[in-house]
Design brief:
Elements (H helix, E strand, L loop, with lengths): L1 H4 L11 H32 L2 H9 L2 H17 L2 H24 L5 H29 L5 H30 L1 H20 L4 H4 L9 H14 L1 H16 L7 H8 L4 H25 L5 H21 L3 H29 L5 H29 L1 H22 L1 H4 L4
Length: about 400
């Protein structure tokens, strides 16, 4: 079936057996991650009735990502990436199935949610650079943009489908069943990953020596010394801090500015996802034929302009339309950055480079804290406007100060 689908340009990367396996495993992992966000929060609130603990159980992911990502990148470069990914998936499956047993036997307590959540967060830090590095090995260079675009499609579909599936399972059979399903999905992901045959590509990797710290420093120097990767990383961090982080105050935007309830807030998120999905499909279909440097700069600037427009809007319909546009700009920018970084990174350094790319999630979290504090001082709308202006100016500075970014073709 996948071979037939792969004949369409949008799904061209599926012609490669190894990518099909990675694609299937990514589909399962993305479903579980998005199901877990709903199930863990619902269960914590059901157990404690505390909004404070609801926030805390989500925030446990920040510290592992900040501290362990460089180590995970070095390990992905020095050891078998497939084994690292299998080990990570196996631990995640174990945590989900353990939580399912605790829930179904009535033994679950809040600390179980913190403990398993922390383990899963640590595991995901090691999973991401290994998976992203394998992605670059699974297809020919000419199909890399298409492969990353397809992964963006998967992530955006699962972002909508995963929470709906988890919510349905919780409503019908309870959270225990939801976590049992999550564990089983991981089992299938493991089965697909085990079948990967990338030994011939991996054998070309340079054998690294020295301490983990030395390997981390080597990765930083490599990123700093590669103009295309350095410029792309700078772009990523700027857009993460000043741009995409503004989703953190969606509840305040919906309630205090647009005067809509939680349903309206959900529709804003849906609009963002719709635009992201459209952009991912276009990127998968045509991404290899566009000048990547200019397009990712344009995506970042347009995102900031759209964000300013959202801050100035007091009408829900207008804001919803802007969210769709922002979703398009967001994927256009970040997915192209991902393509550039992977395409320009040497194979033996790709794990460390992708671990730094992973820090974009931390930057988004820090940006969320910044815009939240700013909103408390100047109000929600002006906070969005100021951050949007910061995004535009930051990307323009990158484009002017780093001409090598504008020159990136592939």
């Amino acid at each position: 079936m996948l071979r037939v689908v792969a004949r369409a340009p949008t799904f061209a990367a599926l012609r490669f057996r190894e990518y099909r396996l990675i694609f299937g495993a990514q589909l399962g992992n993305s479903m579980v991650v998005n199901m877990d966000q709903v199930a863990r929060g619902w269960l914590m609130y059901d157990l404690t009735g505390s909004t404070v603990q609801l926030g805390l159980v989500t925030s446990v992911k920040i510290v592992p990502g900040l501290l362990l990502a460089p180590i995970a990148g070095v390990m992905a470069d020095r050891y078998d990436r497939r084994i690292q990914l299998i080990a990570a998936q196996s631990l995640s499956a174990t945590m989900n199935l353990l939580l399912a047993i605790l829930i179904l036997t009535g033994l679950v307590a809040p600390w179980h949610l913190y403990a398993t959540g922390l383990v899963v967060a640590i595991v995901q830090v090691f999973e991401i650079p290994a998976r992203q590095s394998l992605l670059g090995e699974s297809v020919d260079r000419a199909f890399l943009t298409n492969a990353i675009g397809l992964n963006s499609i998967v992530n955006n579909v699962c972002r909508s489908l995963g929470p709906a599936v988890a919510g349905g399972l919780i409503a019908v059979v309870g959270p225990g069943a939801s976590y049992a399903v999550q564990g089983l999905i991981y089992v299938f992901s493991i089965m697909w990953t085990v079948q990967l045959r990338l030994a011939s590509r991996a054998s070309t990797m340079r054998v690294a020596t020295g301490s983990i710290w030395a390997g981390t420093v080597e990765g930083w120097r490599y990123i700093g010394g590669n103009p295309a990767i350095r410029g792309s990383m700078t772009m990523l961090m700027l857009v993460a801090v000043f741009g995409t982080s503004f989703v953190a105050i969606f509840p305040a935007l919906a309630k205090d500015v647009l005067n809509v309830d939680s349903t309206g807030q959900g529709l804003l998120v849906t609009g963002l996802g719709m635009g992201a999905l459209v952009s991912a499909i276009l990127l998968a279909t045509h991404g290899d034929r566009v000048p990547k440097g200019k397009f990712m700069l344009a995506g970042g600037i347009l995102f900031g302009i759209g964000q300013v427009a959202v801050g100035l809007s007091s009408w829900f319909a207008v804001s919803f339309a802007l969210m769709v546009a922002l979703g398009i700009c967001s994927v256009t920018c970040t997915a192209l950055i991902n393509t550039v970084i992977q395409g320009h990174a040497a194979q033996h350094m790709r794990g460390r480079v992708m671990s730094m790319f992973q820090q974009g999630q931390v930057a988004t979290t820090l940006g969320g804290l910044l815009i939240g504090a700013l909103a408390a001082i100047v109000g929600v709308q002006w906070a969005i406007v100021i951050m949007g202006i910061g995004c535009v100016l930051g990307v323009i500075v990158v484009g002017l100060a780093m001409p090598e970014v504008r020159a990136i073709k592939q």
